[in-house]
Amino acid sequence: MIDEALIGWSRAQFALTACYHWLFVPLTLGLAVIMAVMETVYVVKKDEFWKRAARFWQKIFGINFAVGIATGIILEFEFGTNWSNYSWFVGDIFGAPLAIEGILAFFMEATFVAVMFFGWNKVGKKFHLASTWLTGIGALISAFWILVANGWMQHPVGMEFNPDTVRHEMIDFWAVATNPAAVNKFFHSVLSGWMTGSIVVIGISSWYLLRKRDVHFAKASIRVASAVGIVGTLAVMFTGDKSAIHVAEYQPMKLAAAEGLEDGGSRAPFSIVPGVEIPGMLSILATHDLDGHVPGINDLLEGYTASDGTVVMSAQEKMERGKTALEAFRTYRELKDADPDSAAVAKSVLDENIEYFGYGYIEDKEELVPDVALVYWPFRVMVGLGCFLLLLMIVVLWFERRNRIEQARWLQWVSMFSIPLVYLAGQAGWIVAEVGRQPWAIQDLLPVKAAVSSLDKGAVMTTFFIFVAVFTLFLAIEIRIMLKAIRKGPETGTESGEAAEA
């Protein structure tokens, strides 16, 4: 008997770690670009002002970077502690991108981040600039391989099941590395980091403007951050469009839950909020065709016929074929030495039904429906805040370029209070991505109840609350150190750019 409480606490602990980790990662990705652009301007223009600006944002980057590493390491260890069945079942595949991330990206970041922080005035300007860019590139490489692993969980490819080892084994590394779901997720996540970093820089710079200090630095930072953020957010919207197509194809239940769509069909409406819909818009977003067929929750449970005539089996049929696969697997394991011929027959049955192997663990088809409200509303929070923040960055840049940003105190306050909103948007996006694929640890392949470790529920509960305390302490310390650095401000000196402006 599976302990549902153990599953719940294991999921909660992993979700807690992931949510805290994602507080640090997007700021790292965004600041890496902003500080590198500023240092590039310094090297090109030979203006010390841009050097001081870059060094200030590198300091904020460094504080955030250190805490992000700590939570990331814990997150990876939890696969082995809380999800050991998962790790055994697909470790040959899932472990490969994480190993590459650790060997390549982590050491690359560690090497060049040291030069970036301690190499000022010790190495040449161009070499230091290269180190700054390579630190950011290392962060991108790290994000890529982690998101390859996550994308594979959303759309598993490039593997086959070995009943002798009871493991899925990789047969096509490039299929895993170039998985369209993973590649799109990489760009979507990284570019959302650009938006996060930009909003944080704009918000902090607005604080300086409200205090009427370091005005030139604040305006220059707003100019760079707004440009980076606008480009990043527009690209996030483009990749979001691609993501909708991938989700419609690979994870239709997630899409149906995100839209609260019970009964689908062609010209499916897009729900803005309950009761307010745009006719046909969901079909356009999911298929790029007004007449495209989008299945609803009931269609996916009961089975349906797509617009092209393809018959999609019901959840009950998939569950029956999954149980057939499990039974054939057990028979093969029992007879492979004693009766090779019968084992071969069982292996053939297993191969025919392996696509539905994970459904064999599902006892009630309702398990296949994620928490609709917990997917529906975060999706609207993500999209709504993304649109608001894009508009904010456009307005901020417009005011800055017309030299009116100092007088727009209302805009400075809005920018400051938008810092938590950009984090809320990012967390909402991950809730949609991860809650939306429940009950699967790996889409259609392994449900969470078959992936969990055999642990004592009390131990997981205890460590959950320990992690709450430790992670909250980490966050409080980081915020305190960052606030101290912000209050201190950029290095003092004659701002040649400010003099020229005057």
Query: Whole-number radius of gyration?
Result: 25 Å
Give the tally of β-strands: 10
Give the CA-CA distance, first to last residue.
Answer: 75 Å
Spans with pLDDT under 50 lasting ≥5 residues? 494-502
**Overall geometry:** globular
Would you list the SSEs in sequence order as H and E?
HHHHEEHHHHEEEHEHEEHHHHHEEHHH
Which structural class matches the secondary elements?
mainly alpha
User: What percent strand?
Assistant: 5-15%
Average pLDDT confidence is: 91
- The helix count comes to 18
Largest sheet: 2 strands, antiparallel
Strand order of the largest sheet: 1-2
Characteristics of this structure?
502 residues, mainly alpha, two-stranded antiparallel ribbon, disordered C terminus
Summarize the structure.
This protein has 18 helices and ten strands.
Write the layout of secondary structure elements.
Layout: H1 4-45, H2 48-81, H3 84-118, H4 125-154, E1 159-162, E2 167-170, H5 173-177, H6 180-211, H7 215-250, H8 252-259, E3 265-266, E4 270-273, E5 276-278, H9 281-287, E6 293-294, H10 297-302, E7 304-305, E8 311-312, H11 315-335, H12 340-353, H13 372-401, H14 409-417, H15 419-435, E9 440-442, E10 446-447, H16 448-451, H17 457-488, H18 496-501
Antiparallel strand pairs: 1-2, 3-6, 4-5, 7-8, 9-10
Helix pairs in contact: 1-2, 1-4, 1-6, 1-7, 1-15, 1-17, 2-3, 2-17, 3-4, 4-6, 6-7, 6-13, 6-14, 6-15, 7-8, 7-13, 8-13, 11-12, 13-15
